[in-house]
Design goal:
126 residues; alpha+beta
Length: 126
């Protein structure tokens, strides 16, 4: 009578093939999750930055500040900085120094894992 069944070598080869297939499958899955997260940030961050910049430009006397976007966009935060605009490389633009402010708005998400920067210039309030 012939013994029916698998040898130990056949089982080990099948397990090795299964392990290789599952490793590549999990790797591609984690890569797709990471890309989806990046895509979500790359779509939402510019829109949120433009929204926040519009709020700043509609008010007088912007100061350096930071905050978040509330419960609608959890994890998204913003920070704005103000500085006097300088244009050392252009003689024409140097005439505007003292008349413009440089607004730097940074939207970040996930413990500064992702960040988006929006620069804007506006007239210095008198």
């Amino acid at each position: 009578m012939k013994n029916a069944g698998f040898t130990l070598l056949e089982v080990m080869i099948a397990l090795a093939i299964l392990a290789i297939a599952l490793t590549s499958l999990f790797g591609s899955q984690s890569s797709s999750v990471r890309l989806a997260t990046e895509t979500r940030f790359n779509i939402q961050a510019p829109l949120l930055a433009q929204l926040q910049m519009a709020r700043f430009q509609s008010t007088e006397g912007i100061i350096a500040d930071s905050g978040d976007f509330g419960d609608e966009f959890p994890g998204f935060q913003w920070k704005v900085e103000m500085e006097d605009a300088t244009f050392p490389e252009s003689e024409l633009l140097q005439q505007l120094e003292g008349q413009l402010q440089h607004l730097i708005l940074v939207v970040f998400w996930g413990e500064d894992l992702y960040s988006f920067r929006l620069d804007s210039y506006q007239r210095t309030p008198k």
